[in-house]
Write a structure and sequence with these properties.
eight-stranded antiparallel β-sheet; two-stranded antiparallel ribbon; 12 strands
Length: 170
């Protein structure tokens, strides 16, 4: 059957740390503190379509109201995630697909004006196969869309990347 959840709320966060790239040393961040009102809406749902096949979805929307700053620098507004999992071969093989979406993140330009970094669209796929009781192999391919968004100003993310390995259980 279905499972679902929804939330809405407001919280006032005192001394919320917002990180801004240091203009003199790009390897460092300056920390700026502000009291921020945060109204949020979140929800999610999941369902097992048939034995071994599961779908899940989550979304979070934040609305920030900083007391002293123009924006809540480098804090995400909208984040949406979805996944599909399929288990087969008597639970020895797990296949998974994920989608991650986020809107552009506000940042402060060197001249003090606000800007917005690009959004995120990341599609990933993975698989895990249990070869024998204590040995498994896995493969994960991330960011199939090759989205090289900057989560932090001047810090691009990786494009497509592939990970894999063996898993031993003792």
């Amino acid at each position: 059957g279905w499972n679902y959840q929804a939330q809405a709320g407001f919280k006032k966060i005192r001394d919320l740390a917002m990180f801004l790239p240091d203009s003199a040393d790009t390897r460092r961040f300056s920390v700026l503190y502000d009291t921020v009102g945060n109204f949020y809406l979140s929800g999610g749902a999941g369902v097992e379509l048939w034995p071994g096949m599961e779908l899940a979805f989550q979304a979070l929307q934040n609305f920030y109201a900083p007391e002293n700053e123009d924006r809540a620098w480098h804090l995400p507004g909208l984040e949406v995630n979805g996944s599909i999992r399929y288990t087969l071969l008597d639970r020895k093989l797990l296949l998974r697909g994920d989608v991650f979406i986020a809107d552009g993140i506000p940042y402060r330009k060197a001249d003090g004006d606000p800007g917005r970094l690009g959004g995120l669209l990341d599609i990933s796929a993975s698989g895990h196969y249990q070869i024998i009781r204590n040995l498994g192999a896995w493969l994960q391919i991330n960011n199939l869309t090759n989205n090289q968004r900057e989560r932090w100003q001047r810090y691009p993310t990786f494009g497509v990347n592939v990970l894999g390995g063996l898993m031993l259980r003792f």
